[in-house]
């Protein structure tokens, strides 16, 4: 396993700890793990170690981190409305199922979309600021980005599945 994938795996495995930590500890862990998202991508590009495993592991770790953080902030600390958690969960389930379907029918692992990356980065930035400083205005762009990235993934999914794979000439 290469270094970028190890960083992603660490994020994936440490994210559930937020379920058991006190508020400030959970936020500190969230911030630390969110920073590893940028680190693994940087390392993969810099070391030229982008892999199909990384294309799956990195977004899975991102989704796990954000969904657990939102779950904790919604149900354990009652700081965020459930709508944000469920809108992100719906989008992420679509991405995972759609990506799996593309892999099974088209034979390749789709790369993360730029709007999806932007959404993840924005939510990772906005959540600590929202909960520490009560900046409610920061949540509205998150809903917009989740919706736009869902539409972007949906269009990519439809476009990818509509491409007919031609049989090679004999």
Automatic annotation (TrEMBL):
Pathway connected to this protein: Phospholipid metabolism; phosphatidylglycerol biosynthesis; phosphatidylglycerol from CDP-diacylglycerol: step 1/2
Membrane topology per record: Multi-pass membrane protein
Record keywords, A-Z: Lipid biosynthesis, Lipid metabolism, Membrane, Phospholipid biosynthesis, Phospholipid metabolism, Transferase, Transmembrane, Transmembrane helix
GO molecular function, a single term: CDP-diacylglycerol-glycerol-3-phosphate 3-phosphatidyltransferase activity
Record-listed E.C. numbers: 2.7.8.5
Subcellular location: Membrane
Name of the protein: CDP-diacylglycerol--glycerol-3-phosphate 3-phosphatidyltransferase
Native species: Thermocrinis ruber
């Amino acid at each position: 396993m290469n270094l970028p994938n190890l960083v992603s795996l660490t994020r994936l495995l440490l994210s559930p700890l937020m379920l058991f930590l006190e508020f400030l500890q959970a936020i500190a862990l969230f911030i630390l793990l969110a920073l590893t998202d940028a680190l693994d991508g940087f390392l993969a590009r810099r070391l030229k170690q982008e892999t199909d495993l990384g294309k799956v592991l990195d977004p899975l770790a991102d989704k796990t981190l954000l969904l657990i953080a939102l779950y904790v902030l919604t149900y354990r600390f009652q700081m965020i409305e459930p709508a944000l958690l469920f809108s992100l969960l719906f989008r992420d389930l679509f991405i995972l199922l759609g990506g799996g379907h593309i892999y099974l029918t088209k034979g390749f692992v789709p790369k993360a979309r730029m709007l999806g990356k932007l959404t993840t980065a924005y939510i990772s930035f906005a959540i600590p600021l929202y909960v520490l400083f009560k900046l409610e205005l920061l949540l509205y762009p998150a809903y917009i980005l989740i919706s736009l990235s869902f539409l972007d993934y949906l269009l990519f999914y439809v476009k990818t599945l509509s491409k007919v794979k031609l049989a090679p000439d004999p």
